[in-house]
Amino acid sequence: MSRYKLAIDIGGTFIDVVVFDLKNTLLTAFKLPTTPHDPAEGVVAAVGRLGFPPADISDFVHGTTLGLNAILERKGAQVGIITNAGFRDIFEIGRGAVDFAHMYQFDFEPPPQIVERRHIIGVGGRMNFEGMEVAPLDGEAVVAAAKALHEEAGCAAIAVSFLHAYANTAHERDAIALIREAYPALEVSAGALLANEYREYERTSTAVLDAYIKPVLKNYLGRVSSGMERQGFAGQKFVMNSSGGALTFDLAEAEPIATVFSGPAGGVSGALHVARETGRRNVLSVDVGGTSLDACLIVDGEPMDVFEARIENFPILQPIFDLRTLGAGGGSIAWIDNALLRVGPESAGAVPGPACYGRGGTRATVTDAAVVLGYIDTGNFMGGSMNVAHELAVTALRETICEPLGIPLEEAARSVFDVLISRTASSIKEMMLERGLDPGEFSMLGFGGCGPLLGPMLQNELEMPELVIPPLPSVFSAWGMLASDLSFSDSVSVLEAIDEGTMARLDATADALAKRSTAALTEKVGRPVEPAVSFLARVRFIGQEHTLSIPYERGDVAADFLARFSRTHQDRFGHTFGSEAEIVSLMVKLIVVTEKPDLSTRIAQNTQLAPTAPHRLFDQAAGAMVDCEKISRNALEPLRPYPGPLLVIDEGSSLAVHGNQTLSVDEYGMISVRRRDAASALEA
Amino acid sequence: MTISKAAETEIISALFFSAAEQMRRTLVRTAFNAVIYEVLDFGISIADASGRMVAEAAGITSFIGGNDYALKMLIENMDMASLRPGDVVILNYPYWNSAHMSDALLMAPVFVDGDAIDMFLCVRAHWLDLGAKDAGYVIDSTNIHQEGLILPGVRIIKEGKLDADLWKVLEANSRLPEAIRGDFGAQVACLRTGEASVRDIYRKFGRERVLAAIEAFFVHADEKTRQALQHLPKGSWSAEEWLDDDGVSERMIKMAVDVTITDDGMTVDYNRSDPMVPGPVNVPFGATISMAKTYFKFLTSPDTSSNHGNFMALDVRADPGNLFHAVYPSSTYMPWTHMVAFELIAKALAPVINWLPAASGGDEPGFMAIGRHHRTGKSYVISNNEGIGWGATYRHDGATALQHPSTSTVRNTPIEVLERQANLFHEGLELIPNSGGKGRYRGGLGVRREVRMVGETEIISMKKKSKTGGWGLEGGEPSPVQNHMVLWPGEPREKKVGMYRAVLKEGERFVNYSAGGSGWGDPAARNPAAAAYDVANGYVDPAAAPIEPVKVETYAKS
Fold first, then answer.
1. Number of DSSP helices (H) and strands (E) in chain A, helices first
2. What are the mean pLDDT values of chain B's consecutive 10-residue runs (558 residues total)?
3. Which of A84, A100, A106 would best serve as a mutation to test chain B binding (most B beta carbons within 10 A)?
4. A414 and A492 belong to one structural domain
5. What residues are paired with A25 via a beta bridge?
6. Does A426 sit within 8 Å of B14, measured CB to CB?
7. Is A558 exposed, middle or buried (0-12, 13-18, 19+ CB in 10 A)?
């Protein structure tokens, strides 16, 4: 009988591995360096180091940035596009906008095209906005185009995208059937079948990127599978998708675009699990790594998601957690700009890394400042496996900050944090203000290698009542993957004004959609499933461009549904209208719940940390370096207050609690840091 | 606890920028009309007690510092001593404001603690209707009184309380009172957000440290700007361009600039341009200044946020009565002039600054459709901003089918949206082969869009640069394609037009053409691989007939 659930998350620097021993309810975690030349090799190597037979793994969940990297590094397949005759430049023309980062660069150089224009072929056929066929699809032209693109031009994948296909998918369905019949080995992606939404460029872009990474991801997942199977693995394989669900390898290979934000989604998935299990309704999830800080909001137990994201300037229409990259991470470089001290956006990355890593970095980073201020336990950094040199940090700060500005070491290190924290807190405030939310009503959940480092200072700056640090914060994204459920979603275009007739038809549509998608899921999983089914409708007032996602319940009547939409509109935008609204599309979400680690699951300790030791750190409350205790996380007793200042260390991270803060471990094993100097809105 | 000055200046600067950004998020979140939340047709800024811009949030690209002149004029013309905490002033008088009459500026003084004004907050946003003679756009007004209700800087909120009588006047003058009520509310919320943020900064640091930091980051921005100016050549250079016409006559209008760079700074002088004209293409001086500031920013500091210090070295000149300094009662409704004039500074300096781009397609050559939907019966007003080719530079080809540089972040309207909402059916949308000006690096390509009406609709072709082309650099050539629209193509009544209003019936067609960018360097020196790539991909078609210049009819009264 299989006994283990395995999650492997590949990030920029490390492969994070978390194993859940179902029988003994024990969690084990470790990190390995990435193998950039062949990421599959790293996964296979990690499986070889588990310490038990891979045959004992029942489920494997994988987080990979392979698809995203293939796009960013232009390492995808050669893609051809088949579209309507006369419209071959929809993809190149796009929306014609320069993104904000380049808005004042009037010598802007556009990035290279991802599809060469000669690989775009128009064919006869046209739908109108009502989904009525204006001209029939020219099937012969489709096959001829596929032949030209595949046989003559050497394209490995085809994206099919036709105008108004959201209103009637027939031409896209017919076209891919014809292409598959003629060329069974050729990869094909169709816009409206990936995203049944209007806006032709956005759909085309989604299909192109999907096609672009399909051969790459298929090859990769195939090698991961065979490498694991060679070692005896025979369990179920999943890839994390961008909205926190687990997709079977088959599904991920069929629609790889759903996996592009796989890694960060694992963290939000974990945050959601913690929020729901521990009764925290409003959570700000803050994932801080070496180069960036990614934030996502959970409001009233629901993660904020969006249906459109961007990779570079390419839109993708997919459900995705609304993750924002807001600030600099631990590797960000501090530098002098005339008379100003700035931090980031340049990062020392993994190589050379912060000066204190001793890998040749000479410029001061946030991590170096943390070492000087006692926020990182130099004796125990990365479980002692990476040698942190205090001297190197001091030298870097002295040479690049202290001397040019003429300030002492400790002031320089503090200033780095003052600048970083102030700016990051501002960005978080801006993100929350966009939705009319108040940080004072949220718990911050900090994770990632540097989440515990920045968390307490961000909490003070944002005047947030509580900071939560989950167990295994530095591999929390992988942990979150263990907490994800098997998920599948599908949608249909509706585009009807809301009235009783529409709602009656919607009920039938929902029924058919649920049946269709359950059958598809059953086929993909290879066993009967009984998923939890929920529906979301995309709704807007007529004339608006943007939509809101409104939960739809079977049998909803128009008045109730409209009221629900209007309330959401009021919350989101601060006003609502009395005018007519329409349903743009209906999405079904199927969830098959999996066995997850209980929050209080014991964690295996690889190294023995001394329970307590004397330490010295810079306390924000006292405004000075102070003596305090350094405590190992597993030595903390639950439900007992530990007033700051103190430093809590575990294998992957350090948490500096300041003099105005009190730490405790709650009944679920979460570290909770509260501010003593403020009344808590959460407790009111 | 002491904090190093280098850090404190950076922190306070970033906090003010964040305050402006928080104002922006509030406006975008709560605004009613899509011109604000989609097109970002707004300007948001925070200024110190003497009106110097401390921070701003990005709206349309060419709006940098757009509120500065308005605030200066309010300080000069209003009794500032009479302002009280909680007051909000409204202004749309174009000669003071930096924009046309549809743009309502709201200004709130911030009194942190006491009787003196500490800061000013400004938010200007495009309102859908303030009672101009025509709905939508006014393309042929000849004085300000045809362009809507004038609000010459008056208190609309007094000590936190809305002046209900004045508000009734506003609503009674608008065709869309619900929309302006919503947008006004969003702007007030934006000001209140800014006020809370500013108070927070003062509470955290105290007035003395805040003011010291402001001075320090002005000095920093000024120093950085002057450091960048040191790399520019010193001397005077000039350029001219032509605007098609003023909308009420056929005469082309001269726009000219003289740019002087010295060790002390840069002067941009528009005085050699034509005097004001009868039609609505005259430019408020505030808009002239922000147009120049935007190009100056590209030259000196494109990657940083803006404050007063970034522009201390810039002097913008246009005397009252010039095309670029409109005075009462001239008409100013059409903002196309400062789009077409936007690249004048580049044209003047390109011969001496090698990294400046050649001319873009030069205009925002879009269109508007107004009518009643043939299936739903609903009336609609919808527009599309068409992309143009951008100019090549000394190291790369120009970008293809992008929005005009002065509105670089605005997006075009999807075909599927145009076809759902209006009586339009697209027969084609493709790049125009050979439309990029030739060069060692070629210009970007323009766009051809062919549309058939599926029901009667009124079309406004919007272009103010269709009679003249662009300019290449170092032997590069201008795009052979001009911005224009062909109405009723292939029919005996076929007409080539620039700015034009026409009613098209079901089955009738138009084709919209946007210009490409101009080239850089000798076309013969083009990399053979790049040339072959262009041909293989159809960007260049050597077999195509040469593109003939078109003679456009620029205006006809309907």
1. 17, 36
2. 84 95 90 78 95 93 91 96 96 94 96 94 93 86 96 96 96 90 91 94 95 96 95 97 92 97 95 97 96 95 90 98 98 93 96 96 94 90 93 97 93 92 96 98 98 96 94 97 96 94 96 98 97 97 90 64
3. A106
4. no
5. none
6. yes
7. middle
* Distances from the Cα of A216 to the Cα of A259, A318, B108, B213, B216, angstroms: 13, 20, 56, 52, 52
B430 and A427: CB-CB below 8 Å? no
CATH code, domain carrying A162: 3.40.50
Q: Are A87 and B302 a contacting pair at CB < 8 A? A: no
Rounded to whole angstroms, how far apart are CA atoms B451 and B418?
10
| Domain count along chain A | 3
Q: Are residues A385 and A501 in the same domain?
A: no
Closest-CA distance, B278 to chain A, in angstroms, reads 32
Domain endpoint, select from B166, B185, B220: B220
Please tell me what DSSP assigns to residue B407.
Answer: G
Is the residue at A265 inside a domain?
no
Query: Pairing between strand A79-84 and A120-123?
Result: parallel
The mean of the pLDDT values for chain A is 90
Mutate one of B355, B381, B416, B445 to test the A interface: name it (highest A CB count within 10 A).
B416
Q: Is B239 part of a structural domain of the chain? A: no
Q: Which of B220, B236, B264 is the C-terminal boundary of a domain?
A: B220
Contacts of A96 in chain B (CB under 8 A): 385-387, 401-403, 410-412
CA separation for the pair A577, A575 (Å, rounded): 7
* Angle at the Cα of A587 from the Cα atoms of A586 and A590, rounded to 5 degrees: 145
Read off the CATH number of the domain in which A532 is found: 3.30.1490
Contact A189, A198 (CB under 8 A): no
Q: How far is CA B481 from CA A23, B437, B522, B524, B538, in A?
A: 73, 9, 19, 21, 16
The answer as to whether B285 is a domain residue is no
Residue A484 has pLDDT above 90, yes or no: no
Q: Which of A181, A197, A218 is the last residue of a domain?
A: A218
Residue B43's SS3 state is: strand
Tally A–B CB contacts below 8 A. Answer: 218
| Domain-located, residue A349 | yes
One domain for residues A403 and A541? no
Q: Can you give the residue range of the structural domain that contains B463?
A: 357-558
- pTM equals 0.93
Rounded distance, CA A226 to CA A222, Å? 6
Question: CA-to-CA distance for A238 and A244, rounded, in angstroms?
Answer: 12
Q: Could A434 and B25 be called an inter-chain contact, meaning their C-beta atoms sit closer than 8 Å?
A: yes
Amino acid symbol at B350: A
Angle at B478 between CA B475 and CA B482, to 5 degrees: 175
Residue A191, in any domain of the structure? yes
The reply to whether B50 falls in a domain is yes
Residues A395 and A511 in one domain: no
Describe the strand order of the beta sheet including B235-243 as a list of residue ranges.
B235-243, B253-261, B266-269, B314-317
* One domain for residues A78 and A163: yes
How close B44 gets to chain A, by Cα (Å)?
A: 15
| CA separation for the pair A33, A346 (Å, rounded) | 22
With respect to residue A66, please indicate whether it lies within any of the assigned structural domains: no
Chain B residues in contact with A202 by the CB 8 A cut-off are 414
Residue B300 counted as domain residue: no
The mean per-residue pLDDT over the stretch A458-475 comes to: 95
DSSP assignment of B143-166, as one string?
Answer: SGGGS----EEEEEEETTEE-HHH
CA distance A56 to A52: 7
pLDDT score at A492: 86
What ipTM was assigned to the predicted interfaces of this complex? 0.93
Of A171, A201, A218, which residue is a domain's last? A218
Residue A561 lies in domain:
486-592
Instruction: Domain count for chain B, please give it.
Output: 2
